[in-house]
Amino acid sequence: MNILFCNGYFYPLDKKQEKFAQPYPPLGTIIAASFIKQNNYNIAFFDNCLNSDPSLIEEQLIESKPSYLVIYDDGFNYLTKMCLGVMRDAVLEMTKLGKKHDCKVIISSSDSTDHFQHYLEEGADYILLGEGEETLLEIIESEKSGIGAEQIKGLAFKNSDGVVVKNGRRPVKKILDDFPVALWELIDFDSYRKIWEENHGYFSLNLATTRGCPYKCNWCAKPIYGNRYNSRSPQNVIEEIKYLQSLTEVNYFWMCDDIFGLKPNWVQEFSQLKHEENLEFKYKIQSRVDLMLKENNLDALVDSGADMIWVGAESGSQKILDAMDKGTQVEQIYEATHNLKKRG
């Protein structure tokens, strides 16, 4: 049984982002592929991130003859949460190609979670609702055994009568170190490096140290993890960085968590391990202004290599911040900015 993984975010189709020239590999896709491979299934991979034509996957479908086409979007990258119509159209085109070549089509993304009925009507067999790895494995194993999908949590599908069934959500996994390291060896690093170095003079890759966000800003899309927040251990993240640096020359990372280093003393331990391993790298993160007020946390971030912090100020109006349930004060934006600039 062959399982073909691909992603549904096409960087060149997002014209605004293409101008920034900062493409990142589909991390969520290669983590899911690693999880399925760990469970003794044959996998293939087609990276759409630098692709502008969804029909190009047909050649891979013909070559690998997969039983399943898994279109698994990177839920760590905020860009995939803001679905553009062109991305949905591209995913649905790949869905039709998968069905043309007798695949069961399984889709995992923020947009398909929110609009699962539309994707099912357009030909998808299964939509993963929320955190997808364990649900995906259960689908494949249920199909293999002929048991059926009725009892699988975190799933939407059409039953034998053509009625859309939405099973209850699956609890998110709390021990993230149990997930295998992403199958980074599937990525053509040179194609990403070329764009980065030509436009910025350095190369960056993406890592996720957590899943979810505990804050409740009312405009934020959270279809995958909801308000849950779970963290990998600092040691687990350091080991992945060492692995990546053994595969390719990279010394800059985007820690693409919604909120980085929220767990008490996480950053301090991460910094200590980095120095013990004599690793050289810098990184950027996403955070909040109210988390940038503690001196010891800021010092640990700087010591561990953070050099860019997106603080999500959102507005300079307290009325607007309160209306969006941001939970921060305008004064904190000024104080956080001062604290960060003081540290370079």
Can you tell me about this structure?
Helix content is 38%, strand content 15%. The chain has 344 residues and is α/β, with parallel strands linked by helices. The strands form three sheets. Strands 2-1-3-4-5-6-7 form a seven-stranded mixed beta sheet, with helices on both faces. The protein is globular and about 60 Å long. The termini are far apart.
Short note summarizing the structure:
The protein is of the alpha/beta class and 344 residues long.
Tally of individual helices: 13
How many strands appear in the DSSP assignment?
A: 13
Q: How would a textbook summarize the main sheet?
A: 7 strands, mixed
- What is the terminal-to-terminal distance? 53 Å
Please tell me the overall pLDDT: 95
Could you spell the SSE succession in H and E letters? EHHEHEHEHHEHEEHEEEHEHEHEHH
Structural class: alpha/beta
* Helix percentage: 25-40%
Question: Secondary-structure map with pairings?
Answer:
Elements: E1 2-6, H1 15-20, H2 27-38, E2 42-46, H3 57-64, E3 68-72, H4 85-100, E4 104-108, H5 110-114, H6 116-121, E5 126-128, H7 133-145, E6 155-158, E7 164-166, H8 189-200, E8 205-207, E9 210-212, E10 229-231, H9 234-247, E11 252-255, H10 266-276, E12 282-286, H11 295-304, E13 306-310, H12 318-323, H13 330-342
Parallel strand pairs: 1-2, 1-3, 3-4, 4-5, 8-11, 11-12, 12-13
Antiparallel strand pairs: 5-6, 6-7, 9-10
Helix pairs in contact: 2-7, 9-10, 10-11
